[in-house]
Amino acid sequence: MPGKYDAIIVGAGPAGIFSALELIKKRKNTKILIVEKGRDIDRRICPSKEKSTGCHNCSPCSIVSGWGGAGAFSDGKLTLSPEVGGSLELYVGDQELTALIDYVDRIYLDFGAPGLVYGLEHKEEIREFQRRATQADLKLIPVPIRHLGTGRCMEILRRMKEYLVSSGVEVRTDCKVERVLAEGGAVTGISVAGGEKISGRHVILAPGREGAQWLSGVARELDIKTEVNPVDIGVRVEIPAEIMEHLTRVFYESKFIYYSKTFDDKVRTFCMNPYGEVVLENNGGLITVNGHTHAYKKTGNTNFAVLVSKTFTEPFKEPIAYGKYVASLANLLGGGVIIQRLGDLVGGQRTTVSRLNKCLTVPTLAEATPGDLSLVFPYRHLVAIVEMLKALDAIAPGVYSRYTLLYGVEVKFYSSRLSLSSSLETHVRNLFASGDGAGVTRGLAQASSAGVAVAREIARRLG
Q: Cys bridge to 86: 136, 184, 280, 446, which one at CB 3.0-4.6 A?
């Protein structure tokens, strides 16, 4: 097993990158290898986006895999509050998580993040929005947000890679990890595609959301217990930007939580993109939907996700499989992502090309297929989504319009929460798991913080 490394990091998303940044800072001569199955930052090109065609089913998908992880092509929002973005506080504590988020925020600033933070001013307006939200049975969670923007986010990630490489960190992209190797209750390294075995004293598993299912397989092989997380399934909503402008001007991203009156299911808004665009994602051959806001170019629309959270109990323990099944129905019926006007959905009719052409909201994702989402989603999910949009209309009149566009399916696979210690270590000695793929975090800030937490523990052990 050639190349003894102090730390092998599987995954080059924020958790993996910040583990490497912190290890280098704490111990400059640390021998580190980062292994990433996707492409390098400058080779992450989406053919369907470049040519405005349907998804080419690239494997791996450059939108969700490669240097920078799924966040590279996101609009790069840092939620600077421990209240949202994961459950890292369960491992490190609330006070430490607050300190970690502040710490990683300063590092993003060092690498070129903009200085503006939304949600720190306009206190009177925020209180009024919260009052109106309560009257509509909504909970508004005001959080400070630093927006990097698609484009600028890529620039920051490129600088981080250049810094790590110049500091002696070895990076292998286009390199898929096949197995995690262990002996005598301790990790010994990894094996990669082609059969090469690479030894390491510590291994950090940070594969991101796209690698959640792979991580579940590793857990089964190494007998690591997992807990079933909720699976979030819903739609991407697109409306004229003016409808949400009074909210996005203050918060940038408005985080609302609602419990449906019919089934008491939790529904939330997620990833709001003012003046942004709706985009495709390829999740292991499934075409799903997401949204971005670019740092340097704007559209006339705002988009955001409305997600229904569902926790499964005995005997079912495969929420990832369930989410993929729902998404596969949209792919089956529409050849990818389906788009539907809200008025058509409520009226019980399919959106056609002619009906879409009459829509006052002009879609930013031309590749989406007009169709009927009621043939895709379970009834209780549809009811929860429609109820949520009605409630939001009380805060932002115009959300519940017949011309509001719904894209489906959007699904977040946060379902492989591994059994971990307070230092994010598995029962296999010196094997750590971190970030969104491990079910610990749900966003850039907490994923980056988790990477720092793991790195500090490894640095302590290395001495």
A: 446
